[in-house]
Input
Amino acid sequence: MAGESIKPVENTASIPSSLPEEDIHCPHCETPMSAKTAFCPACGWSMTPVPPLERAVAAAGYLPLLPAAVVLLLPTYRRHLFVRFHAWQSIFLWIVFLALTGGALFLSNIAAAMALLVFGILATLAMLFLWFVLSLKAWQGERFGVPLLGDLAARMK
Ligand SMILES: [Zn+2]
Output
């Protein structure tokens, strides 16, 4: 909304803190607040740089599902919104990934099963047709061979 969301540092120091000056926005919920605010008044997001341990835990939370779930359940990280944000995002991302790939694999299995089923039906129909034709030829006294198999049978004694 405000055309200028970030003021130069020298201006911030000169403005009395009582003024409702909105200098920065929460990266979590977009709530505007003073640049000196340590925690977002709306959601509690820490406005100070994230410590390395929290960053490491948040990064580890992107391993498939389990680490993120553990992070969310651990009392230690109950108030670590940065870590929890990434843990939740990881969980949602993995759910979407697993649903899509699982669905694709399931459909591919169905497609493969359908193809095999169609092949089986066609092969059965072909076999019934050959059975009928070859029986008829034999009955009529005709030496009628099918390709490949007829040649093979001719060589046998
Ligand atoms: Zn916030």
Remarks:
- Confidence is low (pLDDT under 50) at residues 11-15.
